[in-house]
């Protein structure tokens, strides 16, 4: 990050009229990253800009010139490089929350900001960045964490000797749960989201996060030598030169962590030792890197004085800054995808979404929808298949035209539906809406086209159960009893002669958008594939909360017949059962990864159990067992 700042400042210093595309080429980074850094440098008063028409020129302030003159410190490998492997993706975090905070009478992480605990805020940031395996080391008032249902998916470890030990003892207590590189966070830190994001992406597997000296009076000063950690101390008199202040966020490799714990257990005679000094000891022989972030908004909360300052001053400023950088982040996706200028993006508005982040964006007067995939979707969705299937739907005229689709990231941009009105269960019950909905289903199901994949509900059950175990999800009550009954139905269902057709798979009302009076669009083709067409009809009927009479009307409109054949009725109720059971597992996975769906999952399982007692099901299973 710091290297890119210097490169960018050097490029601007040489040519004030460079556009951001040229800056990106010079620095070897994306246009979006350049835009992000430009805003950071402007915010920090390192540069200023002048606009002439559509062109912008950038100039260094005196502060920027001084910073550039300081140069980039050369990296010299004078210690052992402990890592042979390249940077690994971080999937785990350890939060140290054992320390006593008598001012609050509770752990610092449970202090609130606008009704949200500091711990919940940090958990949300971690999960936004793909970290769902989170270990909390508690001590002081550890029982209070049990009062927060949003923490039920976390792993808790208690340091029972927290009164007589330092943070290294707490970190060592987490050892049974650590098997890979992880992010270490102290529970009393309020910090910008970008700090965690950039620490995770930093190229060194071991690095501490530092920033400019804050003057709080309790700083852990840091000195860097030859590009690596050299000294940490709270005693300013020990330093010839101070490179920054340690914040309380570090990225630690499994190898270095193992050496820290081993050294602590073998040779330590001071139980009050803190982890940062053990890390410093390890750095005598092994390279421990650093990431310095300038103008970082953050605060430490370990007293009422700190809490008051952070609440009244730091947090409001941090929120405003994060909002601005989130806007830049969204615009960066658009700029990289469409090769447009920052100024071309005129407006961004949140646009709902149960799993993904959707935004309505206006570019040069034209409206689009930007989708940024939500947390955990990468393991459950094949983006290449989705892209193929969504294009097929677009060609059929039942979805809007795709403007951009990234198979690696899942980022998608599509034209905004004119006069868009998302359906509600109440709307779907109207006959005119049913006629439009069934017409779309008929176009899709009778198209004769082949989607890129097959959606096999039973294979998905196996796959989702595997993901549920990996996420440490906890099945609801009656789960295994229901599963046994579902497997009996599986044998009956697979004995039927069912012709597979292209299916949407997730045709709930929220994924159907009305445009004007005579047009509907099906959106979000993430789960689409070849399947029994009754799957689509059954899911839509359930999520629309059709009465038996409304469902009968819906089916006769689709079939264009006066009566619904018995086999269709049987397939409808069986698909309802399979769907509720599958999406129950899906909900358990999502909740294990930090999402909160309330009673949605348990309601699905309850409806599944109810449908298993349907007369048609009892009749079929009776014949099967007989």
Automatic annotation (TrEMBL):
<dbReference type="Pfam" id="PF13412">
    <property type="entry name" value="HTH_24"/>
</dbReference>
<dbReference type="Pfam" id="PF12804">
    <property type="entry name" value="NTP_transf_3"/>
</dbReference>
<dbReference type="InterPro" id="IPR036388">
    <property type="entry name" value="WH-like_DNA-bd_sf"/>
</dbReference>
<dbReference type="InterPro" id="IPR029044">
    <property type="entry name" value="Nucleotide-diphossugar_trans"/>
</dbReference>
<dbReference type="InterPro" id="IPR011009">
    <property type="entry name" value="Kinase-like_dom_sf"/>
</dbReference>
<feature type="domain" description="MobA-like NTP transferase">
    <location>
        <begin position="93"/>
        <end position="215"/>
    </location>
</feature>
<protein>
    <submittedName>
        <fullName>Thiamine kinase</fullName>
        <ecNumber>2.7.1.89</ecNumber>
    </submittedName>
</protein>
<dbReference type="InterPro" id="IPR025877">
    <property type="entry name" value="MobA-like_NTP_Trfase"/>
</dbReference>
<keyword id="KW-0418">Kinase</keyword>
<dbReference type="Pfam" id="PF01633">
    <property type="entry name" value="Choline_kinase"/>
</dbReference>
<dbReference type="InterPro" id="IPR052077">
    <property type="entry name" value="CcrZ_PhaseVar_Mediator"/>
</dbReference>
<dbReference type="InterPro" id="IPR036390">
    <property type="entry name" value="WH_DNA-bd_sf"/>
</dbReference>
<keyword id="KW-0808">Transferase</keyword>
<dbReference type="GO" id="GO:0019165">
    <property type="term" value="F:thiamine kinase activity"/>
</dbReference>
């Amino acid at each position: 990050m710091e290297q890119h700042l210097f490169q960018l400042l050097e490029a601007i210093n040489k040519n004030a009229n460079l556009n951001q595309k040229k800056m990106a080429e010079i620095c070897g980074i994306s246009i979006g990253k350049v835009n992000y850094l430009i805003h950071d440098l402007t915010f920090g008063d390192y540069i200023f800009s002048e606009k002439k028409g559509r062109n912008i020129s950038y100039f260094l302030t005196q502060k920027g010139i001084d910073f550039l003159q300081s140069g980039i410190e050369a990296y010299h490998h004078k210690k052992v490089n402990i890592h042979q492997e390249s940077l690994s993706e971080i999937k785990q975090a350890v939060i140290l929350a054992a320390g006593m905070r008598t001012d609050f009478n509770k752990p610092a992480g449970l202090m609130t900001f606008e009704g949200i605990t500091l711990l919940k805020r940090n958990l949300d940031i971690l999960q936004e960045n793909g970290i769902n395996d989170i270990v909390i080391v508690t001590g002081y008032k550890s029982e209070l964490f049990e009062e927060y249902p949003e923490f039920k998916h976390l792993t808790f470890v208690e340091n029972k000797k927290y009164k007589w030990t330092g943070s290294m003892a707490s970190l060592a207590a987490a050892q049974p749960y650590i098997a890979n590189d992880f992010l270490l966070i102290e529970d009393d830190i309020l910090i910008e989201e970008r700090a965690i994001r950039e620490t995770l992406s930093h190229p060194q597997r071991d690095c501490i996060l530092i920033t400019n000296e804050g003057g709080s009076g309790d700083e852990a000063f840091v000195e860097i030598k030859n590009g690596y950690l050299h000294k940490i101390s709270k005693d300013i008199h020990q330093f010839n030169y101070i490179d920054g202040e340690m914040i309380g966020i570090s990225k630690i490799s499994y190898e270095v962590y193992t050496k820290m714990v081993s050294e602590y257990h073998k040779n330590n005679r001071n139980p009050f030792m803190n982890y940062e000094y053990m890390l410093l000891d390890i750095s005598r022989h092994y390279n421990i890197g650093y990431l310095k972030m300038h103008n970082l908004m953050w605060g430490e909360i370990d007293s009422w004085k700190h809490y008051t300052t952070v609440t009244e001053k730091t947090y409001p400023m941090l929120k405003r800054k994060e909002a601005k950088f989130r806007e830049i982040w969204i615009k960066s996706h658009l700029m990289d995808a469409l090769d447009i200028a920052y100024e071309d993006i005129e407006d961004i508005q949140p646009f709902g979404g149960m799993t993904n982040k959707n935004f309505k964006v206006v570019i040069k007067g034209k409206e689009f929808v930007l989708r940024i995939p939500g947390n955990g979707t990468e393991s459950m969705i094949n983006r290449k298949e989705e892209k193929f299937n969504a294009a097929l739907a677009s060609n059929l005229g039942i979805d809007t035209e795709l403007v951009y689709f990234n198979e690696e990231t899942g980022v998608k941009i599509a034209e905004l539906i004119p006069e868009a009105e998302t359906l509600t269960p109440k709307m779907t019950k109207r006959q005119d809406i049913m006629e439009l909905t069934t017409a779309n289903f008929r176009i899709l199901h009778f198209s004769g086209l082949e989607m890129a994949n097959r959606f096999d509900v039973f294979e998905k059950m196996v796959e989702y159960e595997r993901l549920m175990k990996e996420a440490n999800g906890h099945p609801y009550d009656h789960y295994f009893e229901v599963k046994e009954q579902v497997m009996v139905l599986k044998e009956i269902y697979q004995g039927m002669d069912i012709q597979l057709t292209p299916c949407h798979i997730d045709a709930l009302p929220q994924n159907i958008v009305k445009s004007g009076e005579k047009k509907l669009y099906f959106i979000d083709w993430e789960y689409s594939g070849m399947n029994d067409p009754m799957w689509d009809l059954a899911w839509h009927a359930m999520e629309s909360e059709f009465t038996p009479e409304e469902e009968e009307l819906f089916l006769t409109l689709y079939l264009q017949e006066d009566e619904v054949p018995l086999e269709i009725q049987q397939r409808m109720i069986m698909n309802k059962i399979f769907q509720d059971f599958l999406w129950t597992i899906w909900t358990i996975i999502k909740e294990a990864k930090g999402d909160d769906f309330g009673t949605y999952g348990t309601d699905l399982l309850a409806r599944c159990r109810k449908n298993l007692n349907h007369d048609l099901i009892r009749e079929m299973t009776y014949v099967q067992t007989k």
